[in-house]
Design brief:
Elements: E1 4-7, E2 10-13, E3 15-17, H1 26-34, E4 41-46, H2 47-51, H3 57-60, E5 71-75, H4 79-84, E6 93-98, H5 103-106, H6 118-132, E7 136-141, H7 151-160, E8 165-169, H8 183-187, E9 196-199, H9 207-211, E10 216-219, H10 221-224, H11 237-251, H12 254-268, H13 275-284, H14 288-299
Parallel strand pairs: 3-10, 4-5, 5-6, 6-7, 7-8, 8-9, 9-10
Antiparallel strand pairs: 1-2
Helix pairs in contact: 1-11, 6-7, 11-12, 11-14, 12-13, 13-14
Length: 302
Amino acid sequence: MTRTVDIGGYKVGAVWLAPMAGYTDIAFRELCKSYGAGLTVSEMVSVRGLMYGSVNTAPLMRLADSEKPSCIQLFGSEPDDFARVADKLDCDMIDINMGCPMPKIVKNGDGSALLDAPDKAAAIVRALIRATGKPVTVKTRLGRRNGENTAARLLERVVEAGAAAVTVHGRYAEQRYTGVCDTDAVKALDRLPVPVVLSGDVDRGNISERLGSFSAVAVGRAALGDPAIFCGGSVPPETVAREHMRLLVKYFDDRYAVNQARKFFVHYFKGADGGKALRAAVNAATTADDVFSALDKFAARG
């Protein structure tokens, strides 16, 4: 997994951490980077939130020192808005979300709604490149509605506008996360003159095969319980959980750290002997020290 791919002049490893709202905060990204993630991308950040100084955007844009090159993902739908926030983007690369399927995003013309507006999508890429001079990438899906594969038209336009790479989740927005990723449909888009990155259902069982067919792959849900997927190694879940907690405490207050532990420990300890009791203890925790104590008891259970 040491292969690299060139993204706008930056050479990055070919196995990426896919951005996931509510999960890929600075702590988890630093954890995955420590295990060899080639590129880590922030949770999606609202361009409108940046324009109007929303208090919710600042935590999303924090970057770890190890994130080199760093990448922030934006969502929005007005080219001028992207240009206006250029001076707030203290990162090396920028990814534009053109695939989010959630109704609250799509109804504003953002995310996967841009699959129906390729000219506007291209204008967004062009405006951001002109305003920042940074490499811009795009993440999208096969199309909005099942069977209506409109990704090719969108991607041709954004690449013409200067996109340095494109990531395609092999599902339609209407599917959300159901069904199976259509890797063949994504592969059919690989005639573009920039790297095409596969997202969707990448896991330990197929990662080598997928890397044989695509410039790079973005790992999403499979990384939530197994950050060591990026190096191909095997690490005990309590070790990963403890490292993750240390990073959460480094960057966040106890309330946030405990809430994240509750979300991630479901993945880390799924099916593990003693995992159910550990998760119960974490669900009852109120401080990070409580979580560390629960991990100590888990490790000492004999």
